[in-house]
Amino acid sequence: MHFKASTIFVTGGAGFIGSAVIRHLLQNTHARVVNIDKLTYAANLNSLPGTNENLNYAFEQQCICDGLGLRRLFEKYQPDAVMNLAAESHVDRSIDGPGEFIQTNIVGTFTLLQEALRHWRSLSPEKREQFRFLHISTDEVFGSLGDDGFFTEITAYAPNSPYSASKASSDHLVRAWHETYDLPTLITNCSNNYGPYHFPEKLIPHMIIKGLAGEPLPVYGDGKNIRDWLYVEDHAKALALVLAHGVVGETYNVGGRNERTNLHVVESICDLLDHVAPSATGARRHLMTFVADRPGHDRRYAIDASKLERELGWRAQENFESGIEKTVRWYVDEQFWWRAILERGYAAKRVGLNQ
Ligand code: TDX
């Protein structure tokens, strides 16, 4: 995967997964990357160290709901591919304020598709053949699993939160733009990502930062909900692989085969913190506190990634134990990154109780 002489648009490139994709492309390929990001609360250009000096990188502050702004960028850069990672992503926030999710995730994807289609139609036949639009989505579109089974690429969609419903909607739009207009699209649906540069509203960074501060660790409900954890750098590699070798019109599930209960995740973080940054007040597990459950809380997610493994040769390199240790150490070592977010006013307060 060289992407030599290719220009790739990465929308949401200042976000958690988008920034991992950009770091991966710049470090491991010859792609020219244009980061298109609105810079919302969760965006952070500090997640892209060293890019200012990189001649293969450009940044454009741009909302994907603004068609004319996007058109200007398509004309300016003439991209060979678009990777759409711009999204509102936090389930709890979508419960209190679904409007932003409808706008960015649905209207934004629609607008980006329209401008990509306009650009694609202007290309030479050879360039059209090579062009790709890769839409990055989530396993939450499939709803919740019981004790058994896995989500595959043919599992029916059954989203339960405003967030997952907005992502499901955007997936359908992407599929339709391929079926109706022949735009060369692909879709990936991933399980829960974790790793460095994760905004602290999400379970893992939230617990690490609270644990370091000696504050209560809020476990929703009984803590027995299961998530399938995927190290973000493994995900970034999968996305580059799908972009280079995926079959147009197909969807690919990306998952780490690392199902863990939330209780197990939080206990692991407590134990690692006790080891890496011991506290004078004792073991962190005592900070775990059961709090009111999330409304509509999905019980279990688990991805069957065998299509991606079989057809494109992808394998996750990290398991949960290796990935969570790297992640905890990163948050302990790189406190400047997340302390700046707290100083900007992020309060780490509970949201999404539908009250
Ligand atoms: O403080 C908390 N306590 C807690 O028990 C938080 C923030 C979460 N939780 C629970 C809720 C979930 O069962 O932990 C689990 C993970 O929660 P989140 O980090 O909010 O992730 P989730 O709701 O599973 O969704 C994530 O994975 C799929 C991402 O946020 C989505 O963007 C992605 O699509």
Task: Quickly describe the structure.
With 355 residues, the protein is an alpha/beta fold.
Description:
With 355 residues, the chain is an alpha/beta fold. The protein has a domain at 7-197 and 229-258 and 296-320: 3-Layer(aba) Sandwich (Rossmann fold). The chain has twelve helices and twelve strands. The chain has helices spanning 16-28, 67-77, 91-96, 98-121, 125-130, 162-181, 203-213, 232-245, 262-276, 306-312, 320-333, 335-343; strands at 7-11, 32-37, 57-61, 81-84, 132-138, 185-190, 192-194, 217-220, 226-231, 251-254, 259-261, 288-291. Strands 3-2-1-4-5-6-10 form a seven-stranded parallel sheet, sandwiched between helices. Strands 7-9-11 form a three-stranded mixed sheet. A two-stranded parallel sheet has the order 8-12. It starts with 6 loop residues before the first strand and ends in a 12-residue tail after the last helix. The relative contact order is 0.14. The structure holds thymidine-5'-diphospho-beta-D-xylose. Thymidine-5'-diphospho-beta-D-xylose binds at residues 89-91, 138, 140, 192, 202-203, 206, 218-220, 225, 227, 262, 294.
Summarize this structure as a short list of keywords or feature phrases.
alpha/beta; 12 strands; Rossmann fold; 12 helices; 355 residues; three-stranded mixed sheet; binds thymidine-5'-diphospho-beta-D-xylose; seven-stranded parallel sheet
Given the C-alpha coordinates, what overall shape results? globular
Distance linking N and C termini: 49 Å
What compounds are bound to the protein?
thymidine-5'-diphospho-beta-D-xylose
Can you list the strand order of the major beta sheet?
A: 3-2-1-4-5-6-10
Number of strands: 12
- The second-level CATH architecture of the domain at 7-197 and 229-258 and 296-320 is 3-Layer(aba) Sandwich
Which blocks of ≥5 consecutive residues have pLDDT under 50? Answer: none
> Helix count, per DSSP?
12
Q: State which percent range the strand residues make up.
A: 15-25%
Q: How would a textbook summarize the main sheet?
A: 7 strands, parallel
